[in-house]
Amino acid sequence: MKLWLGFAAMLKKEVILMARYFVNSIGGIITIYFIFMLIFWGYTGIGTPGLQMGTTVENLVVGYVTWLMLMLAWQTIPYSLLQETQEGTMEQLCMSPLGLTALSGFMVVASAITDMLIVVAMLVLTMATTGTSLNIDIISLLPLVLLALTAVFGLGFFCGGLTLLFKRIQSYLQIGQFALIALVAVDPSSVSRWFPTTLSSYWIQGVMTEGANLSGIPLADWLTMIISSALYLLMGIVVFKLCQAKAKRQGTLGHF
């Protein structure tokens, strides 16, 4: 019951913040859409006659939206903890019976749910702008999206732990955005298939651009995605707990 109340509180907070600062949320969507248009115009060439919207443009749309979804989920924990520290409410979270780790987990899941509204809006906008037609197979996409998010949650816990120790790591988070692009864009090989989100992002592309479905994904790929996502999440939580313990020993957990 306590777990449910903790998650419900975090979800309620995210909904209230999105509604209260709706104008800012719209501004964020406009900014993200403008960045996509710059990429799209640079890729296709402004004013190119007889522009053909083929599979390559479809991959660009899916890749960008996938990167956006993962980036929003990955940055939730470090930026939220930084904000809590600046506002002086970090100690209150740590004093919760659920603990900071559980609350951070609820925080990132609740944020992912509300961020899906932005992701869906961006998908609709980019499809309408580029004239692409994608295969939106919810049944096939849902488990792949969950596996991709699970891996990126682990990265979020890792960066959240660093935030507890070093407070200001925004410059490294910005670098991480470009690293995340590489993880989404790289083709899975014998090594890269074990990178966080790489294989699941590859199959998300396959479902939306080539019409693949769950039965068409090899068992070996399913095992790789499940094992790697679980490992990244576990490692992220372990690092988060270690950093939290060290920050407590140093007496700097709530200091900025």
Structure description:
The chain has helices spanning 2-20, 22-44, 55-87, 90-94, 100-130, 138-166, 170-185, 198-210, 219-250. It has 9 helices and no strands. The longest helix has 33 residues, at 55-87. By secondary structure, the chain is mainly α.
Low-confidence stretches: 46-55
Total domain units: 1
N- and C-termini, Cα separation: 33 Å
Arithmetic mean of pLDDT = 85
Helix fraction?
A: over 70%
Question: In terms of structural class, how would the helical and strand content be classed?
Answer: mainly alpha
- Note the total helix count: 9
Rounded to the nearest angstrom, the radius of gyration is 19 Å
Strand content: under 5%
Largest sheet: none
Number of strands: 0
Provide the succession of SSEs.
Answer: HHHHHHHHH
Rough outline: globular
Fold topology:
Elements: H1 2-20, H2 22-44, H3 55-87, H4 90-94, H5 100-130, H6 138-166, H7 170-185, H8 198-210, H9 219-250
Task: Give a quick rundown of the structure.
This protein has 256 residues and is an all-alpha fold.
List keywords for this structure.
256 residues, mainly alpha
